C-alpha cells in the first residue's frame, strides 16, 4: 500500500511538473508572438502619421501624393513635349495609398544607378573597420554616405562635379512629373558639369532611375539616394529631436510632417556635404559659379529696403557652415508642427535676423530679384499672353530684368499648377531658353 501511495505521489508530482512546463512554454510562445507583432508594427509605421489638412498659400514646392502632374497645360495646338516624353512611362495599377510616410521608408535596393557606367555595390566590411562616428564612438560607414561620396567623385579626372546640387522628394515616384523634370533640364542647361542628387526613398529605385534616364543618356550626372537621417543629424541638436520623433514623443502637428522633415533634411545635406539646395519647382536661369554661402530674400521692406523675409527654397553653403548649424539648432529647439512656414522660411528669417552683425558668420543675403523675382500671388501674370501693346512692353521689360538679374525663378507650384502657358508669356519664353531636349520637342518658338 505504501508503495502504491509513493507511486501515486510521484505520478502527481511529475504531472504537476509537466503542467508547469506546458504553461511556461505557452507563456513564452505568447510573449514571443506579442514581441514579433510589436516589432512589425514599429518597423512599418511612423509614430505620428502626417495629417492631411487644408494648406494656405505655400512657400514650399507642391506635393500631391499618388498623382502624376503634367508640366504645363497649353490650350493651343502646340503641345509641350519636353523631357517627360523621353522618360520611360510605367503603367502601374491604381491602388490604395499605404499609410506610410514615403521619406521614412527603408530602401531595399542594393544598387545605386549613378550613371550608365558607375554602379555601386555594397561590400562587406571588417568588424573593426573605422567609420563615421554617430554616438561618440566608432560607427559603421552607411551605404548612404558611401553612395553620396562615390557619386560626387565618380570621375575625378573627367567631368568632375563642379557643382553639387541637392533636391528632396518626399512624395511618390508616380507624382514626379513634367514640372520636376523640366526644373532638372534648366539645372543642367546652366550647369552641364553639375551633379544632382535627388534625396528620396521613392525615387531611389530602378523605376525612379528610368524616369531620370533621358538625362543619363545625354551624359548628365543625376541619381536618387534614400536619406540616412541618423548620419545627417549626427552631433547636432536635430539628433535628439529626431530620436524623440521616432519614439513617438514629438507632436507633428497639423502641417504635413513630410514638409517639415524636408525643411530639416535640406539643412542636414548642406551641413554634411556642402553644395546647392533647390526646391523642385525652381527654374535655374544662370550659373551659380560666383555665389558662395548665399541665401535669398523673398520680400523687402519698402521703406528701409532691407529684407523682411528670407526663403529656404534656394541655399548655397559650404560644408559645415556655422549658419547651417544654427538653422538646425533652431529647428530642433523651436519645432512647431501647427504653424505653416514656422520651420522653413520663417525659421531662416528668425536665425539670420538674430546673428546679423555677429562675428564668425560669413554669408550673403541676396535681394528678391536674385531667386524670387515674382511673389507667389503674382505668378499667374507670368503665364499670360500680352493683352495689348502696353502689356507687351511690360512683359518684355520684366523678362529682360529677369534674364539680367535673376539666377532662378520660383514657380510656386501650389499657385501656378492651375495656370496654362499662353503663347508669348514670360514662362513660355523662359522655357525656350531653359530646355535641353529642345530639338526633339514639338514646341516651336513664336
What does this structure look like?
The chain crosses the membrane at residues 21-43. Pfam families: Gb3_synth, Gly_transf_sug. Keywords: Membrane, Transmembrane, Transmembrane helix. Residues 317-440 form the Alpha 1,4-glycosyltransferase domain. This is Alpha 1,4-glycosyltransferase domain-containing protein. The protein is α/β, with parallel strands linked by helices and 446 residues long. It has a domain at 373-446. It is 37% helix and 12% strand. The chain has 13 helices and eleven strands. The strands form three sheets. A seven-stranded mixed β-sheet has the order 5-4-3-6-9-8-10. Strands 1-2 form a two-stranded antiparallel ribbon. Helix 3 links the parallel strand 3 (163-168) and strand 4. 39% of the residues are buried. Residues 1-9, 38-140 and 440-446 have low confidence and may be disordered.
Can you give keywords for this protein?
Alpha 1,4-glycosyltransferase domain-containing protein, GlycoTrfase_DXD_sugar-bd_CS, alpha/beta, single chain, seven-stranded mixed beta sheet, about 450 residues
Q: Using DSSP, what is the number of strands?
A: 11
Order of helices and strands: HEEHEHEHEHHHEEEEHHEHHEHH
> Mind summarizing the main beta sheet?
7 strands, mixed
Mean pLDDT: 76
What order do the helices and strands come in, and which of them pair?
Elements: H1 2-44, E1 112-113, E2 119-120, H2 143-152, E3 163-168, H3 178-190, E4 194-199, H4 206-217, E5 221-225, H5 229-232, H6 237-246, H7 257-273, E6 275-278, E7 282-284, E8 294-300, E9 307-317, H8 322-334, H9 345-355, E10 364-366, H10 368-371, H11 389-405, E11 408-410, H12 413-416, H13 426-434
Helix pairs in contact: 6-8, 7-8, 8-9
Domain Alpha 1,4-glycosyltransferase: 317-440
Pfam families: Gb3_synth, Gly_transf_sug
InterPro entries: A1-4-GlycosylTfrase_dom, GlycoTrfase_DXD_sugar-bd_CS, Nucleotide-diphossugar_trans, Put_A1-4-GlycosylTfrase_plant
Amino acid at each position: 500500500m505504501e508503495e502504491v501511495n509513493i507511486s501515486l505521489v510521484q505520478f502527481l508530482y511529475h504531472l504537476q511538473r509537466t503542467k508547469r512546463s506546458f504553461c511556461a512554454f505557452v507563456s513564452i510562445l505568447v510573449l514571443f508572438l506579442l514581441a514579433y507583432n510589436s516589432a512589425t508594427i514599429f518597423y512599418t509605421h511612423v509614430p505620428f502619421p502626417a495629417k492631411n489638412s487644408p494648406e494656405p498659400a505655400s512657400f514650399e514646392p507642391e506635393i500631391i501624393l499618388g498623382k502624376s502632374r503634367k508640366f504645363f497645360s497649353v490650350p493651343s495646338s502646340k503641345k509641350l513635349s519636353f523631357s517627360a516624353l523621353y522618360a520611360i512611362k510605367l503603367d502601374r495599377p491604381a491602388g490604395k495609398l499605404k499609410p506610410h510616410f514615403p521619406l521614412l521608408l527603408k530602401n531595399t535596393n542594393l544598387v545605386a544607378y549613378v550613371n550608365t557606367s558607375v554602379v555601386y555595390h555594397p561590400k562587406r566590411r571588417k568588424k573593426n573597420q573605422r567609420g563615421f562616428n554617430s554616438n561618440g564612438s566608432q560607427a559603421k560607414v552607411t551605404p548612404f554616405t558611401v553612395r553620396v561620396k562615390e557619386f560626387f567623385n565618380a570621375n575625378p579626372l573627367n567631368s568632375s562635379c563642379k557643382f553639387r546640387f541637392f533636391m528632396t522628394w518626399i512624395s511618390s515616384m508616380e507624382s514626379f512629373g513634367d514640372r520636376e523634370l523640366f526644373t532638372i533640364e534648366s539645372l543642367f542647361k546652366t550647369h552641364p558639369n553639375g551633379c544632382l542628387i535627388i534625396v528620396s526613398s521613392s525615387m531611389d529605385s530602378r523605376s525612379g532611375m528610368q524616369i531620370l534616364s533621358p538625362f543619363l543618356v545625354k551624359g548628365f550626372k543625376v541619381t536618387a539616394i534614400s536619406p540616412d537621417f541618423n548620419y545627417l543629424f549626427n552631433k547636432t541638436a536635430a539628433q535628439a529631436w529626431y530620436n524623440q520623433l521616432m519614439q513617438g514623443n514629438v507632436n507633428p502637428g497639423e502641417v504635413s510632417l513630410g514638409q517639415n522633415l524636408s525643411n530639416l533634411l535640406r539643412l542636414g545635406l548642406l551641413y554634411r556635404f556642402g553644395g546647392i539646395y533647390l526646391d523642385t519647382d525652381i527654374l535655374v536661369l544662370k550659373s551659380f559659379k560666383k555665389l558662395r554661402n548665399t541665401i535669398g530674400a523673398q520680400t523687402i521692406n519698402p521703406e528701409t529696403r532691407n529684407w523682411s523675409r528670407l526663403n529656404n527654397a534656394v541655399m548655397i553653403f559650404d560644408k559645415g557652415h556655422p549658419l547651417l548649424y544654427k538653422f538646425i539648432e533652431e529647428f530642433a529647439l523651436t519645432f512647431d508642427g501647427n504653424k505653416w512656414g514656422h520651420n522653413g522660411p520663417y525659421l531662416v528669417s528668425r536665425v539670420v535676423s538674430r546673428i546679423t552683425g555677429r562675428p564668425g558668420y560669413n554669408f550673403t543675403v541676396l535681394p528678391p530679384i536674385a531667386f524670387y523675382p515674382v511673389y507667389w500671388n503674382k505668378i499667374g501674370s507670368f503665364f499670360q499672353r500680352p493683352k495689348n501693346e502696353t502689356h507687351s512692353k511690360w512683359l518684355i521689360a520684366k523678362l529682360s530684368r529677369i534674364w539680367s538679374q535673376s539666377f532662378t525663378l520660383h514657380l510656386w507650384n501650389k499657385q501656378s499648377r492651375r495656370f496654362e502657358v499662353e503663347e508669348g508669356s514670360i514662362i513660355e519664353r523662359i522655357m525656350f531658353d531653359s530646355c535641353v531636349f529642345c530639338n526633339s520637342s514639338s514646341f516651336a518658338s513664336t
